[in-house]
């Protein structure tokens, strides 16, 4: 079987707009959640989010292209550029054998919202002809391909909050199947806007702890009250091992397993006992020939909602059995919030760095462990630990689940 390795990482995250800054922020366990600044929240029940406030795509794209692209596409472009540079990829050698697959859950919802208001208030002649190119999810991978001359497989996956994880898993499958030698892959999202805040609030999915934004996202804590929206992009360069070796690439880790499943249960609620996620975890272990006691770390989906955290705990326990008592688990959503389609890409990057550096990032704000979540969730402080095998879990509305398994490269 053709082996798949990670040779580059790019991050635009609430904890930092490059890989090392974002990773150090995750290790510090310092929440990036603050009061929303990009629009007026006076009429909204939730006024907090993990906004990225220090991002500027102009140095990469130029002012004209920056004005013609939506925020989630800009995130993808900047993170992709960093990942390619990190992988030491010669731009002149990108082409037919290199592809791009990005997960996007929503796309340009903010742009659609703004254009809809403009249409209503000022008429059709004032609507930008770029409204749809701004908004369509596949513009993330399409634009990145145009920017970098990637002429291999190119598409976007939309499986809600599992999008980024599915994208990475399917990109690895393309490499293993011999369709391509390299894939630039991950997840991107920029959906913090009044419409999304209002909708998620009506679902009672968001924390409304507006007075304490930095502690509002507290995965696996007894007093958690819902997730907090985040945004960003996480991108990996995946390569076939012999191809990476031939060009002398540095290798972060090997992607050895990928599991996916459907709950077939409810449009928003996870299946009882996390049964669907359990099958995805089991699939990742089986495809990677991994025993339960081989797993050292799990980057959990861990949204800070009552249902998800409890059912994910059950899923992990049911699959790993006794080994669940010794595995280190954490949810980095305590610092980044829930970045929707970007979550899987950002968290996969954190998982790869955890394997590379033997560091378990903490679960921020976990001060009162929930008795219904009885595993080791690495509360508040990072931990040194040898990590040979790590999993990254994701689940999404519609009952979609995806799990990646990474192994230390030796």
From TrEMBL:
EC number: 2.3.1.179
SMART domains documented for this protein: PKS_KS (SM00825)
Catalytic reactions of this protein: a fatty acyl-[ACP] + malonyl-[ACP] + H(+) = a 3-oxoacyl-[ACP] + holo-[ACP] + CO2; (9Z)-hexadecenoyl-[ACP] + malonyl-[ACP] + H(+) = 3-oxo-(11Z)-octadecenoyl-[ACP] + holo-[ACP] + CO2
Coiled-coil intervals, chain numbering: none
Gene Ontology biological process terms, A to Z: fatty acid biosynthetic process
Active site per the UniProt annotation: 161 (for beta-ketoacyl synthase activity)
Ketosynthase family 3 (KS3) domain: residues covered: 1-408
Pathway connected to this protein: Lipid metabolism; fatty acid biosynthesis
GO MF annotation list: 3-oxoacyl-[acyl-carrier-protein] synthase activity
Described purpose of this protein according to its UniProt entry: Involved in the type II fatty acid elongation cycle. Catalyzes the elongation of a wide range of acyl-ACP by the addition of two carbons from malonyl-ACP to an acyl acceptor. Can efficiently catalyze the conversion of palmitoleoyl-ACP (cis-hexadec-9-enoyl-ACP) to cis-vaccenoyl-ACP (cis-octadec-11-enoyl-ACP), an essential step in the thermal regulation of fatty acid composition.
Official protein name in the record: 3-oxoacyl-[acyl-carrier-protein] synthase 2
Organism for this UniProt entry: Roseimaritima ulvae
């Amino acid at each position: 079987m053709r082996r798949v390795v990670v040779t580059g990482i790019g991050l635009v995250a609430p904890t930092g707009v490059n890989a090392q800054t974002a990773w150090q922020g995750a290790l510090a366990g310092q929440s990036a959640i603050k009061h929303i600044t990009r629009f007026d929240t006076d009429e909204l029940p939730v006024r907090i989010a993990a906004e990225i406030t220090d991002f500027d795509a102009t140095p990469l794209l130029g002012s004209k292209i920056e004005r013609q692209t939506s925020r989630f596409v800009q995130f993808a472009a900047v993170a992709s550029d960093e990942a390619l540079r990190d992988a030491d990829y010669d731009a002149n050698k990108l082409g037919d054998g290199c592809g791009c697959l990005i997960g996007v859950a929503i796309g340009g919802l903010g742009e659609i919202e703004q254009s809809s208001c403009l249409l209503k208030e000022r008429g059709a002649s004032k609507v930008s002809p770029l409204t749809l190119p701004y908004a369509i999810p596949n513009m993330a991978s399409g634009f990145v391909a145009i920017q970098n001359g990637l002429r291999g497989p190119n598409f976007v996956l939309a499986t809600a909050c599992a999008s980024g994880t599915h994208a990475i898993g399917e990109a690895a499958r393309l490499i293993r199947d011999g369709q391509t030698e390299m894939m630039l892959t991950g997840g991107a999202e920029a959906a913090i806007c009044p419409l999304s805040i209002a909708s998620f609030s009506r679902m009672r999915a968001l924390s409304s702890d507006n007075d304490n934004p930095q502690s509002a996202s507290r995965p696996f804590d007894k007093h958690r009250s819902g997730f907090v929206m985040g945004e960003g992009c996480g991108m990996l360069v995946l390569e076939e091992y012999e191809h990476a070796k031939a060009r002398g690439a540095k290798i972060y880790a090997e992607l050895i397993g990928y599991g996916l499943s459907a709950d077939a249960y409810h449009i928003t609620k996870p299946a009882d006992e996390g049964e669907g996620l359990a099958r995805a975890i089991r699939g990742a272990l089986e495809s990677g020939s991994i025993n339960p006691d081989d797993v050292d770390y799990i980057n959990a989906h861990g949204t800070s909602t009552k249902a998800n955290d409890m059912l994910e705990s059950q899923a992990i326990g049911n699959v790993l059995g006794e080994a669940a008592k010794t595995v280190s688990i954490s949810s980095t959503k305590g610092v980044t919030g829930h970045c929707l389609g970007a979550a899987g890409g950002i968290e996969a990057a954190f998982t790869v760095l955890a394997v590379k550096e033997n560091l378990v990032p903490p679960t921020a704000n976990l001060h009162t462990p929930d008795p219904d979540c009885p595993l080791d969730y690495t509360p508040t402080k990072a931990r040194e630990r040898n990590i040979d095998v790590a999993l990254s879990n994701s689940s999404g509305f519609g009952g979609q689940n995806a799990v990646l398994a990474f192994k230390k490269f030796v």
